[in-house]
Fold RNA ligase 1.
Amino acid sequence: MRRLGSVQRKMPCVFVTEVKEEPSAKREHQPFKVLATETINHKALDADIYSAVPTEKVDGTCCYVTTYKGQPYLWARLDRKPNKQAEKRFKKFLYSKENSKEFFWNVEEDFKPVPECWIPAKEIEQLDGKPVPDENGHIPGWVPVEKNNKQYCWHSSVVNYEFDIALVLKHHPDDPGLLEISAVPLSDLLEQTLELIGTNINGNPYGLGSKKHPLHLLIPHGAFHIRNLPTLKHNDLLSWFESCREGKIEGIVWHCNDGCLIKVHRHHLGLHWPIPDTFMNSKPVIINMDLNKYDYAFDSKCLFSYFSKIDNQKFSRLKDIMFDV
């Protein structure tokens, strides 16, 4: 099976969208909704959406694995955003009735500083060797997750750089109905993007861990294929999300043959998220760590240590994994 695309830019919706002047169910204090029409987006058609691989859109925070200090590292998403003066100028441009002209950014002066180790996302547009802000006025990028950086402590909890491993959730290779948590070499994940999910990420829609004992995991983008998707019609997708067990997900991401990624979110169809019973929590999960080969005593408070103690155990649902670390 071909390797699926990585998330290095904002994904367009599979349908043309329209703005409705109603309070958003997705973002608090946003006075409008972005809803899908019944017209398929030309970007989806150009990318041959009908031959794309549909996968589950997982609700977490985006991460990236690439080299840092000569070894594979986990990187956290950090968008470079405009300073107050530039943002005010940009918003005035957006809301102007005469905004047919292109907005001019001065990347050197208009944006807040970022750490020296920050890198721009791979697929963003460049002009004269400098990254060009997207339609929201942001420059998507990444910063490496250092071991003792408190800002990214939940990212740090799922990696061990000494042994080049990461805690990954995916389907069991021999049973698509079974999930598996395993220690995967970071070198096997190089140049891939993943979603970090867990207790302290995005309100924890999958119910993992607890405040006292947080649990976080990485899921490679495209890991969960959707097997029985209906035809690409607004009403058919709406019915699928509402009535099918497999539709109890945040959304769909289509991985197209040209590397393009196309999405639809439940909110695009006027549906709520998060929901009580997610499809991810309808499957059993097995622990497959095999850390004995490292001949190393992991910190007793780390997730790797805990999972090594329950190696080969099976749980009826992901959110049933509770522990004391």
In short: The chain has a mean pLDDT of 92. The chain has six helices and 18 strands.
